[in-house]
């Protein structure tokens, strides 16, 4: 059984991170949600990262805002793929989150998504793509998602005014 961990630095990240969870649900992918802050809960963070693989997770999605060290610190503690979601911030519009997540030192990668809601959805889709390498049922559901999206995009042309 494949499973994704959806981790966020604060409950205040939930309005964005719930979109990742919604997308995982739509693809019938099993997940757990966790609120773990690298800054506020450093020991919990280390333990979660170290135990994640044996805990049955295949991929970690990690969303954080501002000085967003959570995805990088999870990646430092596991060799599972970590997908980072930069949360949009009021002060710097999420550029702070983006740069904190994307600028990892060589050797410890985090797959960084776009800032905000679209990034959260894409994190779920990217997690699905990773799982689909070895799980043909997830691959089929992902292909169906793409096909439906293509159909909607083509049909949307008909809604243009003259
Ligand atoms: N970036 C981090 C980390 C971390 O990286 O460990 N822990 C909390 N945070 C972020 O702080 C922001 C404000 O959090 P609060 O709303 O709890 O003050 C959130 O976006 C959270 O992800």
Automatic annotation (TrEMBL):
Belongs to the AIR carboxylase family. Class I subfamily. Its EC number is 5.4.99.18. The gene is purE. This is N5-carboxyaminoimidazole ribonucleotide mutase. One of its GO terms (biological process) is 'de novo' IMP biosynthetic process. The lineage of its organism: Bacteria, Bacillati, Bacillota, Bacilli, Lactobacillales. One of its GO terms (molecular function) is 5-(carboxyamino)imidazole ribonucleotide mutase activity. Residues 2-153 form the PurE domain. It comes from the Bacteria. Substrate binds at residues 10, 13, 40. Catalyzes the conversion of N5-carboxyaminoimidazole ribonucleotide (N5-CAIR) to 4-carboxy-5-aminoimidazole ribonucleotide (CAIR). It catalyses: 5-carboxyamino-1-(5-phospho-D-ribosyl)imidazole + H(+) = 5-amino-1-(5-phospho-D-ribosyl)imidazole-4-carboxylate. Keywords: Isomerase, Purine biosynthesis.
């Amino acid at each position: 059984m494949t499973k994704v961990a959806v981790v966020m630095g604060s409950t205040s990240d939930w309005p964005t991170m719930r979109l990742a969870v919604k997308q995982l649900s739509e693809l019938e992918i099993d997940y757990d949600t966790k609120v773990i802050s690298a800054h506020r809960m450093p020991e919990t963070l280390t333990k979660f990262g170290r135990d994640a693989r044996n805990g049955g997770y295949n991929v970690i999605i990690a969303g954080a805002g501002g000085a967003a060290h959570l995805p990088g610190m999870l990646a430092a503690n596991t060799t599972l793929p970590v997908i980072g979601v930069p949360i949009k911030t009021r002060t710097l519009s999420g550029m702070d989150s983006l740069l904190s997540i994307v600028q990892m030192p060589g050797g410890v990668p985090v797959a960084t998504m776009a800032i905000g809601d679209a990034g959260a959805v894409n994190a779920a889709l990217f997690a699905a793509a990773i799982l689909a390498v070895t799980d043909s049922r997830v691959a089929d559901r992902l292909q169906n998602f793409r096909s439906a999206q293509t159909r909607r995009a083509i049909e949307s042309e008909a809604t243009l005014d003259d």
